[in-house]
Amino acid sequence: MLSDIRSGRIAAPEFLQGLIDTLTQRGRAVLGIKPDREASEDRDLALLGEALLSRRGEASGVAIAQSLLAAFEAAAEPQRLKFLSSLADRFGPDRRAIELAIAAYQRKEGGDGSKLEALHAAAEPRRQELIRRLNLAPGGTASLVRMREVLLALLREHPELQAVDDDFVHLFSSWFNRGFLVLRPIDWTTSANILEKIIRYEAVHAIQDWDDLRNRLEPPDRRCYAFFHPQLVDEPLIFVEVALTREIPGAIGPLLDKSRQAIAAHEATTAVFYSISNTQKGLAGVSFGNFLIKQVVQDLARELPNLKTFVTLSPVPGFAGWARRELKSEASAAIDDDTRRAMAAIEDGGDIAQAKEAITALAAYYFLKAKLPSGKPVDPVARFHLGNGARLERLNFLGDASAKGMKQSYGLMVNYLYALEHIEANHEAFAEAGTVVASDNVKKALRAKLSSRDLVPSPHTNSQRKISS
User: Fold this and answer.
1) Hey, which of 214, 349, 390, 434 would disulfide with 375, CB 3.0 to 4.6 Å?
2) Which residues is 275 bridged to in the sheet?
């Protein structure tokens, strides 16, 4: 086979995959493990986990890991929950080992580095090593991402699994750090396999059909970029859609209009990030978006030096829900009498145009005053962009007049401005003091009689799979 590789008849990746498959088959033969398709539904996944941790041989370890992952994916929800629960208790830290390591460290005068390392090793949950070994199986990374997706779906009703989720995030943050991610442009010539996933994963402004996708990718004033990981070759982790324009847009409709007239890329002065979508539920909480935005800004500035302005056109997914909760509160600091009457009229089916001033003022309060207990803005998209160093630039009344836009934000959209010379200072102000850097126009929209009031921190927060720019 090596001679075939040297002659070019077999590609190296094919050889490596064949080698892994051979090791797996031999490992199964040694261990007497049946092929996955013959695996029994009542296989004890925890026992497979114990077997995996006890093995030292690579072939047998890969075989057990592959069998465990395949059995988990084939299992019904009760069996999956049983295995995840075993990760929480059975595969937690070894308490006896921790106690011995603490005693050994305390006996050593002045502190011994080796004893401290032993204590650190003893404190690590066994499940972390189990997850690492599962990752060695062919397709193990993708399987573990899907396993965490199952875990997240169970977490609300089973909070005892939180420690397991924390370990997944800890490991994924290392495996999916920026150094491993590859930025690739997505265009109309990209493989159909990836384009189909772009259609499926876009949840901010749904792609209606292939013509709609083509309208977002093929014209010279459109761009799309995605991050990929070497272990998920054809699976975009996050992607951003960009429109090149002559001015900052205030509405999404014209950007997505199939009948619009495209402009040459060199005529554009503004790059508009109008949608960012995280694609993998199992990677929730592992941040990619901040790296994506900053690298795309750098790449576009290099490719098109005529671009002077970098902004988003962002939805405000939590605004309407927050406003309705405030309207129900008689003591709300965010609602004055004029605002209450105008918003009540909307809820009763009145003309929303008559409430423009009220909605804009309420939105200014939402962004500038409404805070979580942490002191950060209640809006998740705002936390994302402000944390990246953007400035809240403009509130756009009826920026999204679609049914979805009206339901989630009374049609409101906002622009966040990425001014390259101020990104770091804005980021520091937000990270250190929770300062919302906003334009004068946004600040002026806040009614004077509301601006001095403080809103009691809201217990509500919106976690979302997608983040729109």
Assistant:
1) 434
2) 241
Beta bridge partners of 314: 414
State residue 100's pLDDT score. 74
Min mean pLDDT across 80-84, 128-132, 207-211, 465-469 is at: 465-469
Query: Helix or strand or coil: residue 211?
Result: helix
Give the number of other Cβ atoms within 10 Å of residue 31's Cβ.
Answer: 16
pLDDT in tens, 272-311: 999 999 999 999 988 887 889 989 999 999 999 999 999 9
> Each residue of 204-224: pLDDT tens digit?
999 999 999 999 999 999 999
Banded model confidence at residue 92, pLDDT cuts 50, 70, 90: confident
Question: For residue 276, which of 460, 427, 151, 416 has the smallest C-alpha distance?
Answer: 416
* d(C-alpha 243, C-alpha 265), whole Å: 10
What is the number of H-type helices and E-type strands within the chain?
A: 22, 8
Question: How many angstroms separate the Cα of 302 from the Cα of each of 178, 214, 240, 308?
Answer: 20, 25, 18, 11
- Residue range 88-97: average pLDDT? 83
Other CB atoms within 10 Å distance of the CB of residue 136: 15
The answer to whether the CB of 360 falls within 8 A of the CB of 410 is no
- Side-chain-side CA neighbours of 298 within 13 Å: the count stands at 8
Eight-class DSSP state of 393: E
Amino acid making up residue 20: I
By three-state DSSP, how is residue 298 classified? helix
**Does pLDDT of 455 surpass 50?**
no
Q: Classify 443 as helix, strand or coil.
A: helix
Length of the chain: 469
Backbone angles phi, psi at 111, to 5 degrees: 80, 125
Contacts 24+ apart (CB under 8 A), 324-329: 325/458, 325/460
277 DSSP β-pair partners:
239
User: What does the pLDDT read at residue 469?
Assistant: 53
At 107 the pLDDT is 75
Which neighbouring-strand residues pair with 278? Answer: 238
Residue 24, classified by CB atoms within 10 Å of its CB into exposed (0-12), middle (13-18) or buried (19+), is buried
The answer to whether the beta carbons of residues 203 and 277 sit under 8 Å apart is yes
